[in-house]
Each structure stands twice: as structure tokens, then as C-alpha cells.
Amino acid sequence: MTQQSYPPFAVLLVDDEPAWLRSVSITLERSAGISNIVTCQDSRKVMETLARGDIGLVLLDLTMPHVQGEELLSCIGEEYPEIATIIVSGMNQVETAVQCIKLGAFDYFVKTVEEDRLVSGVLRAVHMLELQRENREMSSRILSGKLQHPEAFANIVSNDRAMLAIFAYIEAVAASPKPLMITGESGVGKELIARAAHTLSGCTGPLVSVNVAGLDDNVFADTLFGHVRGAFTGAEHPRRGMVEEAADGTLFLDEIGDLSIPSQVKLLRLLQEGEYFPLGSDRPKRLKARIIVATHRDLAAKEAAGTFRHDLYFRLRTHHIQVPPLRERKGDLPLLLNAFLADSARTLGKRRPTPPKELVSLLNTYNFPGNVRELKAIVFDAVSIHKERVLSMESFEKAICHGGKENIATAGPHNPFTGLERIPTFSEVAELLVDEAMVRACGNQTIAARLLGISQPALSKRLKIRR
């Protein structure tokens, strides 16, 4: 399996000392996971290298034969303003550092500085460049209004504008190494969103899903990080953790809002340090997977209440998707119904039944607290007991009735007449109710009568009187 290079753009190291180039290359890869590195010993070839490759960041020595660093810094700023340059010099002079910053250098370091400071500076530049690229990508997607890879979303049935905007966002941030947080009610399809993001990420490794709800701290650590032989009683064999299983791919942590505080600390350390220790081991392993998390909880409220660490919360939501509930995208009901009818028939080995025309109108009156998952289950149940050519409405009516009156689509306050100067008459209220029921039922009298709690003949009589 080929390991994906990081970052997506190359980091160019320029110095006439091969030992320094080799040392910094090793340090960046070991300490920061930066493997997409290009080196150049001849300062005369720098501009040629920039013209030839996808360079995003340059680490540049000041004192070199042939072409000096300051001259190169000026040329890079003029010809490639999108490239960031960090000066790494043997001279510890304030005036020189100030001059380089004026010429457009992102940062200035002395070669004798501690490795950690240099690595931190490089990572800051890399993160800034990643955000700039993501912003440009996002702007391009929004302006074009088109998806470049619609096939990645084939399993998500939707023509809703909010969902299409989410698809565009996923395309823009899918290649980012930063965490992606997916929030939304249960049943909206968060795992499908995670799979689409993984598909578009370019990662060569697998998507590994872990539901962390109900895992205590020890089980969570063992599940994610694995253990060595003898780590605890019963650990007779070593076991790879899910982080390692997801190497070069995506680790999807579902129900992250249910994670205990001690487990949150472990996850935070993994994201901050980019490394972890299998249980019982004193040798760290590097994180080589992209992290995607999902929850139906209100993490902002949990963070404000102190039950979810604020530092972990803000690190996880670098990229954030809020998936809308089905009640906010009811225009997708006909598409979802057709897709689930076909899928259920195929699974059950039956011919696809024909849905009655009034079925979509009936479904429109329901709020679906279980969202898309609930609709899929209702359709599957209806197809499983289906016998005639036209699908029966009976199982749908029962499911909606069992869902409770509070989930029938409603609008307005509990008492719409509170505060009115004049209370309308019974006849006027009846007229308004009939009109609203017919609108919600899309003109279907049977469904409108059900919403009003009267028989269809009684509603028909009222409508005839009005004419």
C-alpha cells in the first residue's frame, strides 16, 4: 500500500550544505509527518524548481554561493506570491530578520535554534497554506455551483439545496488532513457523509468505523491504540488498534458526544501530538489516518456545560457539517421513496410495487423524528407485506399514527388566538382549517380529512358548500 505524502504540496529545502538538508528532512518527517519534501543544493536552480513543481513552502538559507537568499526571497515574492518562504539562517541578526520579513518572509529562524521551534514554525506555515487552498477551493465550488465528483454522493439521495451545498463543502475539504465533524439528528445519514468524504480524500487506506458510545476509558484506549503482549491480564497476544488499522485512510469515530472526559483527553493528545502509545508499550506510533467524528449531541452546549473539553471541541470542528433533518428537506421525499422502494424490492426478491399517488402527500404531513432511517424502515416494512400491484397505504398510516400526534407537521403557537383583538367565529376558523389542510395535503381530500379529524365525505360536503 502506497503511503500518501503530506502535505499535498511540496516543501522545498534550499541550502548548500547537504548534511543540513538531510537532517531537516528527517526531523520534519519524524516530528511532523511531513514527507512531501524536495531538496536543492544549488541556489541557481531554485526558480527552475519552483516553475516545475507544486511547491507550497520554501525553507531558504540566506548565505549561499551563486545566488544569495535575500535575492531569491524577493524573486519568489514577485513571481510566486502564493508560496510561503521561511528563512533559516546561520546569522542571528535582528536587522537581517526584519529585512527578510519586510521582503515577505513568513518567518525567520536561526539554524542553532531548537528543532521543536523550527518544526512548529513549519507546521504553522503548512496549516496557513492549507486553509488558503481550502478557501480558494471552496470559493471556486460555490461560484461554479457544480460538483466535480457527483459519483461520490451516489448513495445519498437528495436534490435539496442545503444538501447540495454540503456536497460542495465536502469536495472542498475532503483532502484536508484536519478533523471533520459531522453533526445532526439520529438517522440523517452522517455515516454516508463520512464515506463520501473518505472517497474524495484520495487516501489509499481503508475507512475504519468505531462507535465509541458506551466505551469506558480502558476499552476506548485498547480499541483505538491496541496493546502489546502482556499489557494486562489476559493480553496473551498483541493487537493492532483501530488507529493503526486505518493507516493511510480514515478513522471514523461515531457518537463522539458520548465520550468520557478521560477518553477525551486521550483523543486530544492523539490529535495534538500526532502519535500514540499502544497499551503496555513505551514506543510511540505515528497517527497516519485522517479523523472524522460524528454525533447527534449538541456539542456546543456540552462544551459550554463543561462536559466536553473546549480544546478538543475546537480542534475537532476545524471542518464542520450540520446535516439537516428530513423534515427540513421534504422535497426529497419522492426521491427517497422511489429509492427505498427499489432497494427493498431488490433485497426481498420482489417486483418493485407502484406507490399510490397520495402517498407522498401523506408522508408530507409527518415530521419523521427518526429521519431518513425511519422512512427507510417504514418503506421496507410496507414492501415486505406487499401483495398487490399498487402499494398499500395501511402500513404507512399505522407508522405515522404510532409516531404520535406531536410529530404530525404543525405550525404556529399552542393557542393561535391568544392576543387577538377579535376572536374569529367557528365558521371562519373552519374555513381557515380546511384551507390549511388542503394545502398540506397537496389537494388530496382523504389526507386533508385525516389531518382535520373528520371523514372524507364530511370534508367533501364542506368544500361543495363553499363552491
Summarize it.
With 467 residues, the protein is α/β, with parallel strands linked by helices. Helices cover 46% and strands 12% of the residues. The protein has 4 domains: 122 residues, Rossmann fold (3-Layer(aba) Sandwich); 180 residues, P-loop containing nucleotide triphosphate hydrolases (Rossmann fold); 81 residues, Orthogonal Bundle (Helicase, Ruva Protein, domain 3), CATH 1.10.8.60; 41 residues, Homeodomain-like (Arc Repressor Mutant, subunit A, Orthogonal Bundle), CATH 1.10.10.
Q: Key terms for this structure?
A:
Helicase, Ruva Protein, domain 3, elongated, 4 domains, alpha/beta, about 475 residues, about 10% strand, five-stranded parallel β-sheet, Rossmann fold
Explain the overall architecture:
The chain has 467 residues and is α/β, with parallel strands linked by helices. It has 4 domains: 10-131, Rossmann fold (3-Layer(aba) Sandwich), CATH 3.40.50.2300; 145-324, P-loop containing nucleotide triphosphate hydrolases (Rossmann fold, 3-Layer(aba) Sandwich), CATH 3.40.50.300; 327-407, Helicase, Ruva Protein, domain 3 (Orthogonal Bundle), CATH 1.10.8.60; 426-466, Orthogonal Bundle (Arc Repressor Mutant, subunit A). It has helices at 18-32, 46-52, 69-79, 94-102, 115-144, 161-173, 190-201, 217-225, 242-245, 261-273, 299-305, 310-316, 333-348, 359-364, 371-384, 394-402, 426-440, 445-452, 456-466; strands spanning 10-14, 37-40, 55-60, 84-89, 107-110, 180-183, 207-211, 226-227, 239-240, 250-254, 275-276, 285-286, 290-295, 319-322. It has a 5-stranded parallel beta sheet with strand order 2-1-3-4-5, with helices on both faces. Strands 7-10-13-6-14 form a 5-stranded parallel beta sheet. Helix 1 links the parallel strand 1 and strand 2. It is elongated.
